[in-house]
Amino acid sequence: MFESLSDKLDSALKSVTGQGRINELNIAETMREIRRALLNADVNYKVARDITDRVKEKATGDEVLQSVTPGEQLTKIVYDELTRVLGGEHVGLNMADHPPTVILVAGLQGSGKTTFVAKLAKHLRSKGHAPLLAAADVYRPAAVDQLRTLADQVGVPVYSVEDDGQIVQDAVRVADEAVAHAKQKARDVVIIDTAGRMHVDEAMMKEVADIKGAVDPNEILFVVDSMTGQDAVNTAKEFNEQLDFDGVVLTKLDGDTRGGAALSIRTVVEKPIKFASTGEKLDALSEFYPDRMAQRILGMGDVVSFVERAQEQYDEEQAQQLKQKIKSDDFDLQDFYDQLQRIQNMGSMKDLIGMIPGVGSQMKDLDLDEDAFKHIEAMILSMTPEERSNPQILNGTRRRRIAKGSGVEVRDVNQLIKQFRDMKKMMKTMSKLTGQGRSMNLKKLMGRFGG
Ligand code: GDP
């Protein structure tokens, strides 16, 4: 899904990875790349500009955190923006206080409407509902047959009106009677499949509007083929002007879709995307969550949770204090111990390593020694406060005592002290190089002490 867009965003974001900080220069080039990627994916140009403007503002503003790398930070900002244009929060179906809930489904022919109706029935059934499908696509006998076939697979009944074996071509009547039938038969949801045309046309719109007027649906869903890009957005606009629908269903997201429809429709039409359809099979339907979709587009969902967890562990004040300590060379073993505690609060070592992009997949199966942390902690805890703040006083006798106290060998203590010295040097160099003394380079820290 959205592979080309994902790849291009990835390479745009990579261009700031490894740079000390986000500045006007590197952000401008990155924003150009991101905008190009979005336009290539057929995202509406206003939406693309809006996304890059907001990302730029946030990335160069005060909000930049010190505790993650610029690449990670920017990824998180882009992720937040994508989530926003995709709608922010998940929006579910409007259900009636007094059943049956009536759901009217509209869209162009071939958009995947009938397939969606069956999928929705299946989805609602799995949630304990008893749907009834109304075959209001009355002009093509094949359409009613198709609905029946799909409904059989899902195990839900279909309501249609026939006279002498002929389908009665009165969509409003079918919808109206289906609702009455549902009440009689205690079916708590009626899903109305309407006729679509190849293009938006007046007769089709009028018919759907008439059904709306007759049954007063709780929910009107507009189904659209996401492969049609900006056409999908324009069709959505026209349907919305006529019908004032409640939600959008994006179909064929499993196909070679570039992402333009998904990323533009919410902003242009101002209606939430409620479902995503990702295949011809009847269980290929999911409720739409903007944040999950943004994660998938960026192909870096794990980094997002990594940054979120880091944010939970550090407030800016603490980060500043730490930065000061590193600058003035006051970072000691007690501080180191505190940092280790924080890292562990973020999750298991294996999980954390798995979140590092690029590294993640290769390292996931590695047999990591989670005990490495425990040993380091035990050694630090066996030190006196004076030793922790002043590791240079750790002579041979003290080291033997610490090894004994923490159940490790003297060479482990030696190694810890050496690693700690190296890390201090590294942090100092980093603080000089970047001029900002990043409080914690989690990845490097983990790389060094992760067993
Ligand atoms: P309708 O004319 O709007 O009722 O569209 P249909 O439900 O008949 O679907 C048109 C075609 O698209 C059919 O061949 C479906 O199997 C296919 N289709 C529907 N939804 C999806 C989807 O999410 N992914 C894929 N790949 N195909 C779909």
From TrEMBL:
<dbReference type="InterPro" id="IPR036891">
    <property type="entry name" value="Signal_recog_part_SRP54_M_sf"/>
</dbReference>
<protein>
    <recommendedName>
        <fullName>Signal recognition particle protein</fullName>
        <ecNumber>3.6.5.4</ecNumber>
    </recommendedName>
</protein>
<dbReference type="Pfam" id="PF02881">
    <property type="entry name" value="SRP54_N"/>
</dbReference>
<dbReference type="GO" id="GO:0048500">
    <property type="term" value="C:signal recognition particle"/>
</dbReference>
<dbReference type="GO" id="GO:0005525">
    <property type="term" value="F:GTP binding"/>
</dbReference>
<keyword id="KW-0733">Signal recognition particle</keyword>
<dbReference type="InterPro" id="IPR027417">
    <property type="entry name" value="P-loop_NTPase"/>
</dbReference>
<dbReference type="Pfam" id="PF02978">
    <property type="entry name" value="SRP_SPB"/>
</dbReference>
<comment type="function">
    <text>Involved in targeting and insertion of nascent membrane proteins into the cytoplasmic membrane. Binds to the hydrophobic signal sequence of the ribosome-nascent chain (RNC) as it emerges from the ribosomes. The SRP-RNC complex is then targeted to the cytoplasmic membrane where it interacts with the SRP receptor FtsY.</text>
</comment>
<dbReference type="Pfam" id="PF00448">
    <property type="entry name" value="SRP54"/>
</dbReference>
<comment type="similarity">
    <text>Belongs to the GTP-binding SRP family. SRP54 subfamily.</text>
</comment>
<dbReference type="InterPro" id="IPR003593">
    <property type="entry name" value="AAA+_ATPase"/>
</dbReference>
<feature type="binding site">
    <location>
        <begin position="193"/>
        <end position="197"/>
    </location>
    <ligand>
        <name>GTP</name>
    </ligand>
</feature>
<feature type="binding site">
    <location>
        <begin position="251"/>
        <end position="254"/>
    </location>
    <ligand>
        <name>GTP</name>
    </ligand>
</feature>
<feature type="binding site">
    <location>
        <begin position="107"/>
        <end position="114"/>
    </location>
    <ligand>
        <name>GTP</name>
    </ligand>
</feature>
<dbReference type="InterPro" id="IPR022941">
    <property type="entry name" value="SRP54"/>
</dbReference>
<keyword id="KW-0687">Ribonucleoprotein</keyword>
<dbReference type="GO" id="GO:0003924">
    <property type="term" value="F:GTPase activity"/>
</dbReference>
<keyword id="KW-0342">GTP-binding</keyword>
<dbReference type="InterPro" id="IPR013822">
    <property type="entry name" value="Signal_recog_particl_SRP54_hlx"/>
</dbReference>
<dbReference type="InterPro" id="IPR004780">
    <property type="entry name" value="SRP"/>
</dbReference>
<dbReference type="InterPro" id="IPR000897">
    <property type="entry name" value="SRP54_GTPase_dom"/>
</dbReference>
<keyword id="KW-0378">Hydrolase</keyword>
<comment type="subunit">
    <text>Part of the signal recognition particle protein translocation system, which is composed of SRP and FtsY.</text>
</comment>
<dbReference type="GO" id="GO:0008312">
    <property type="term" value="F:7S RNA binding"/>
</dbReference>
<feature type="domain" description="SRP54-type proteins GTP-binding">
    <location>
        <begin position="272"/>
        <end position="285"/>
    </location>
</feature>
<keyword id="KW-0547">Nucleotide-binding</keyword>
<keyword id="KW-0694">RNA-binding</keyword>
<keyword id="KW-0963">Cytoplasm</keyword>
<dbReference type="GO" id="GO:0006614">
    <property type="term" value="P:SRP-dependent cotranslational protein targeting to membrane"/>
</dbReference>
<dbReference type="InterPro" id="IPR042101">
    <property type="entry name" value="SRP54_N_sf"/>
</dbReference>
<dbReference type="InterPro" id="IPR004125">
    <property type="entry name" value="Signal_recog_particle_SRP54_M"/>
</dbReference>
